[in-house]
């Protein structure tokens, strides 16, 4: 479980952090003095309202956030105003976990809905970073647990779109290359192919307080959706090919392909404004 370490004097602020950790399923580690700080790789953020306690001994690579009236002079410290809301701390922590950017100056602005589209290159070795870039604004609508499921499903679909769609690697080719230890050579050969290099994936989404709809389309030949393994068959869990679609179906209310099999729509309904 990820942890938030904090040295906080203001009881109201401490109560807010405690509530956040409970809602988002983070472990809270409160210390009574900066000298009590102990480094832990599970700690994602150190939070304090004391400008003299920004860098306790042993902080190492853990990111620091100061909560107060004025922004600290140290550019390496994140800043949240005293009246920050839960969503702003969620934005900050998500950025920290994924090495993203955080602009506290935007703390007064929250979207009601978002409708965006993206063109994606075949950068299959950086799918996790791409997925974060595509979904970083989802923190306005989803808590961390639900957001992680959405990202896992999208990562599976994007990997399929690039690998099997734009790069044209079949399930049999992937299985054979994986077993022979030549998978990376196979992928790199396709990435350097002029025809494959010219292909892109297009990602679109619409999200509001009621739900999320995403679509992903590649420029591959598609596939027969009906030929996918039965997700209720225990043997499907052991198969390399088709497992990503099975996982995605677990996390979304609807996963629908077009007839060609190169365009997928994912829908997820929200039961509340934070999930």
Could you explain the architecture of this structure?
This protein is an alpha/beta fold. It folds into two domains: 3-106, Rossmann fold, CATH 3.40.50; 113-269, Heat Shock Protein 90 (2-Layer Sandwich). The protein is built from eight helices and ten strands. The strands form two sheets. The chain has a five-stranded parallel beta sheet with strand order 2-1-3-4-5, with helices on one face. Helix 3 (127-135) packs across helix 4 (144-166). The longest helix is centred in the middle third of the chain and has 23 residues, at 144-166. The protein is elongated, with a radius of gyration of 22 Å. The protein starts with a strand and ends in a 6-residue tail after the last strand. The mean pLDDT is 90.
What order do the helices and strands follow?
EHEEEEHEHHHHHEEHEE
Through-space gap between termini = 19 Å
Class computed from helices, strands and strand pairing: alpha/beta
- Mean pLDDT rating: 90
CATH superfamily of the largest domain: Histidine kinase-like ATPase, C-terminal domain
CATH architecture of the largest domain: 2-Layer Sandwich
CATH topology of the largest domain: Heat Shock Protein 90
What's the domain count? 2
* Fraction in helix: 25-40%
Number of helices: 8
What is the CA-atom radius of gyration, in angstroms?
Answer: 22 Å
Q: Mind telling me the CATH class of the largest domain? A: Alpha Beta
């Amino acid at each position: 479980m990820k942890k938030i370490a904090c040295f906080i004097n203001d009881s109201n602020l401490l109560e807010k952090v405690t509530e956040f950790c409970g809602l988002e399923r983070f472990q809270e580690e409160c210390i009574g003095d900066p000298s009590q700080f102990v480094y832990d790789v599970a700690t994602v953020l150190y939070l304090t309202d004391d400008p003299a306690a920004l860098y306790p001994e042993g902080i190492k690579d853990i990111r620091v956030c100061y909560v107060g009236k004025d922004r600290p002079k140290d550019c390496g410290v994140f800043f949240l105003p005293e009246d920050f809301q839960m969503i702003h701390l969620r934005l900050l922590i998500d950025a920290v976990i994924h090495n993203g950017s955080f602009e506290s100056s935007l703390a007064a602005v929250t979207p009601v809905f978002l409708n965006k589209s993206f063109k994606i290159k075949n950068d299959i070795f950086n799918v996790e970073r791409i997925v974060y870039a595509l979904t970083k604004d989802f923190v306005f609508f989803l808590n961390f647990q639900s957001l992680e499921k959405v990202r896992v499903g999208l990562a599976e679909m994007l990997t399929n779109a690039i690998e099997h769609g734009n790069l044209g690697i079949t399930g049999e080719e992937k299985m054979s290359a994986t077993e022979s230890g030549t998978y990376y050579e196979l992928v790199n050969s396709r990435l350097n192919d002029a025809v494959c290099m010219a292909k892109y994936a297009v990602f679109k989404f619409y999200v509001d307080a009621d739900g999320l709809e995403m679509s992903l389309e590649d420029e591959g030949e598609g596939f027969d959706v009906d030929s996918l393994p039965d997700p209720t068959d225990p043997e499907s869990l052991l198969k390399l090919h088709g497992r990503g679609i099975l996982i995605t179906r677990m996390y979304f209310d609807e996963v629908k392909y077009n007839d060609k099999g190169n365009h997928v729509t994912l829908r997820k309904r929200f039961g509340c404004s934070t999930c």
